[in-house]
């Protein structure tokens, strides 16, 4: 059973992934900055 994804569903998924990536990048950047590299 293959259900076609709606445009809204695709946009939501992209936004969720962007948020996760930005959050992870922010945490990593914050840790690197705190260590003074």
From TrEMBL:
InterPro entries, alphabetized: DUF4044 (IPR025270)
Membrane-spanning intervals of the chain: 12-35
Keyword Transmembrane helix in annotation: yes
Highest taxon in the source lineage: Bacteria
One Pfam family of this chain: DUF4044
Alphabetized UniProt keyword annotations: Membrane, Transmembrane, Transmembrane helix
Protein name, UniProt field: DUF4044 domain-containing protein
Organism annotation: Lapidilactobacillus gannanensis
